[in-house]
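To: structure desk
From: M.T.
Subject: fold request, one chain
Message: Could you run this one when you get a chance? Sequence is below, nothing fancy, just the single chain.
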Amino acid sequence: MKTIRSKMMLLSILIWIIMALIWLSMSAFNQKTVEQYNQILQRYLLMNQASQQSQQTLTSLNNYRITPTEANLRQYQDDNNTLFHTKSELSWLRNPNNEMQLDNFQNMIESQSESMDLVVRFQTDNDEDSVAKKFDEASNISKYISETTLTLISGEQKTYDAFYRKIIKRSNDLFRMGFWTLALVSLLLLLFSFRFVNSVTQPILKLTQASRELSRGNFQKPIEISNNDDMAFLARTLDNMRLNIGNLFDEIQSKAQLEYDLHKHKLMLKESELKSLQSQINPHFLFNTLNMLSKEAFLAGADKTSELISSVAGMLRYNLRRMDSRVSLRDEVEVLEEYLTIQKARFDDRLTVIREIDEEALDIEVPILILQPLAENVFIYVIEPSEEGGTLTLRVKQEQDQVIVQVEDTGQGMSLEQIEKLLSEAESTTYKGHSTGIGIRNVQHRLQLFYGVDDIITIESKIGEGTCITLTLPRGKQQ
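Reply: Done. Structure tokens follow.
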């Protein structure tokens, strides 16, 4: 018995040594292969990174052209610095096969950077023609960089083709050696493991059956194994899991409902933005064209025409912002003034505008486009239908920890039923404003989501005496 045990021990040690040697040799080979492969992959990634960074920097520059703010300028400068850093790292890729192409690649990156810097300078000088010319030049260079990246990667693939073939051959040899070694070791291990099969098979079969029942949704049948070993512990653990899964189903359903409600609110929040986007045809082109027309009108001495075109351009630029943007109440008042300038030119003496604005209350943050839809409502239902026109009063005042905004008119007023219809979902889906396409219900809903409170808008109206819409904006409660 001792001899058998000794032989079994010796055979076990021999098998362990063989497996250890195989594992060490395979690990060493695999590590070496992985390092070589990673080095090649890093070369590909660096080339691709240069191309992507070129396009990213161009995108940042375009954002600065559209909205020339300090934040966009800093973003462009950061991206441009990253592009230069990537250019210096490309020297690591140099080899006799790609030396000329790599020099050309780095020169193109430098040329693009210089062209983009000129765009920034001309943008500062308001030289639109030079900005457009240099931006097109930078865009063309970026396209050449992308094409050259593909050429470089193709050259790298040809350069390392022999290495790939060598790796494949080694892998095949290693696979064959591993196969025969595994077959031999498996045969030896079967001799040792056969005696343990029966003691392990039955508990496993019970656990498999129990798992199948769980997969079918049957959590009522207990899982029991009489053995006093690891299988019994596993069975008890699986039985506890069976109980916990049943309790988790209710929580999962509750969370799913919450996620559905949240998704629904997000879709509603994006509704006005989607409608605006559907009605826009190349708005950046239109904005640039309006700016050009404003300058031409000013140069021609048509100051009023220039002012109107400038107001339209300002409104367009403001409306191009994302509908989930945060702005100050001052910004909302300023864009409303642009809208009123246009309407004043349209209605002349038929329109009277009264402003009662507390400047200290204008620093509060609000969602974008909340005042203009209220003013549009006045023009659609009060000023336009009446031959005598009317008066629009805008009030902004600070009251303790909240800001009160009122838009009042001198129209015919509304009944309670008309007010409820104005704030209903049905109205918001059919409303057509002058420029926003946003109804009062939409404004109310976005303000409720923004501040997390329900009492935001109140409408006071009497037939024949006009209407007053009041926004109560709490300070320090933005979500």
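Reply (cont.): The first helix runs from residue 2 to 66. Let me know if you need anything else for the meeting.
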